[in-house]
């Protein structure tokens, strides 16, 4: 089994990557699982691509091994695309999923157009090579109230298109079939196979 470093400290993302990569017999390891502590990388970019590249390239440079990073977020049409790249810290620092959910629901109170999408950009950095990007989407809308306890982040208020319930009410298998992260990771399939 081969190791793959995922440049994330998010346990929800990590769980999903472990499931995806296990299919390819790859052991996905997140930053908190490494033997030495890795400092937070400042997400100073204005796009998902820039932030994903910052995370992947800095960790790949530091460790001198291939690294995958994920920058993702929730894009809401009625909010002109917010919270977008600022999804993690929408309600301020330190990041707090519940506060972020409350802020979205408050901003959308009385708003009829609730269409939104999750976006996930994956960046793969191999030391000395050009960074590769893949982008995935999951269309849906924002619920009137939160529901469900599965997943992480904004899952309790996101209703995927074609479903009656929120992402947080779906099983992890179901989420992993339809999510923005799964969309992006499946585009990396060939690259992942070559890693073996
Ligand atoms: O499947 C998802 N289901 C629900 N919410 C999600 C999902 N995917 C991303 N999100 C939200 C969580 C966070 O508010 C932001 C990601 O921010 P983002 O900077 O990429 O991740 P993060 O700071 O949590 O961890 P890290 O940078 O260490 O990978 O979008
Ligand atoms: Mg982050």
From TrEMBL:
Binding site for substrate: 8-13, 72, 152-155, 175, 180-181
Pfam families xrefs: Ham1p_like
Active site: 71 (proton acceptor)
Lineage top rank: taxon: Bacteria
Catalysed reactions, as listed in the record: XTP + H2O = XMP + diphosphate + H(+); dITP + H2O = dIMP + diphosphate + H(+); ITP + H2O = IMP + diphosphate + H(+)
EC category name: hydrolase
Signal peptide: none
EC number(s) from the headed UniProt entry: 3.6.1.66
Biological process per Gene Ontology, one example term: purine nucleoside triphosphate catabolic process
Molecular function GO labels: dITP diphosphatase activity; ITP diphosphatase activity; metal ion binding; nucleotide binding; ribonucleoside triphosphate phosphatase activity; XTP diphosphatase activity
GO CC annotation, single: cytosol
Cofactor note: Binds 1 Mg(2+) ion per subunit.
CDD domains: HAM1
Binding, Mg(2+): 42, 71
This protein's UniProt keywords: Hydrolase, Magnesium, Metal-binding, Nucleotide metabolism, Nucleotide-binding
Named cofactor requirement(s): Mg(2+)
Subunit composition and interactions: Homodimer.
Purpose of the protein: Pyrophosphatase that catalyzes the hydrolysis of nucleoside triphosphates to their monophosphate derivatives, with a high preference for the non-canonical purine nucleotides XTP (xanthosine triphosphate), dITP (deoxyinosine triphosphate) and ITP. Seems to function as a house-cleaning enzyme that removes non-canonical purine nucleotides from the nucleotide pool, thus preventing their incorporation into DNA/RNA and avoiding chromosomal lesions.
Family: Belongs to the HAM1 NTPase family.
Protein name per the record: dITP/XTP pyrophosphatase
Protein source organism: Lentibacillus kapialis
């Amino acid at each position: 089994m081969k190791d793959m470093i995922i440049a994330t400290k998010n346990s929800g993302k990590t769980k999903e990557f472990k499931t995806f990569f296990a299919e390819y017999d790859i052991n996905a390891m997140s930053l908190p699982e490494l033997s030495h502590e890795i400092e937070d990388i400042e997400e100073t970019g204005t796009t998902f691509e820039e932030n994903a590249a910052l995370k992947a390239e800095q960790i790949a440079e530091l460790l001198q091994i291939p690294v995958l990073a994920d920058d993702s977020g929730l894009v809401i049409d009625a909010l002109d695309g917010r919270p977008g790249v600022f999804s993690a810290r929408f309600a301020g620092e330190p990041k707090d999923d519940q506060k972020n959910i409350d802020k979205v629901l408050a901003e959308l109170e009385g708003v009829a157009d609730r269409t939104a999408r999750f976006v996930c950009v994956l960046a793969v950095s191999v030391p000395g090579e050009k960074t590769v990007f893949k982008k995935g989407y999951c269309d849906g809308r924002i619920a009137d109230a939160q529901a469900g306890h599965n997943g992480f982040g904004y899952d309790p208020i996101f209703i995927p298109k074609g479903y009656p319930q929120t992402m947080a009410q779906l099983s992890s298998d179901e989420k992993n079939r339809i999510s923005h992260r799964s969309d992006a990771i499946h585009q990396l399939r060939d690259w992942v196979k070559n890693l073996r």
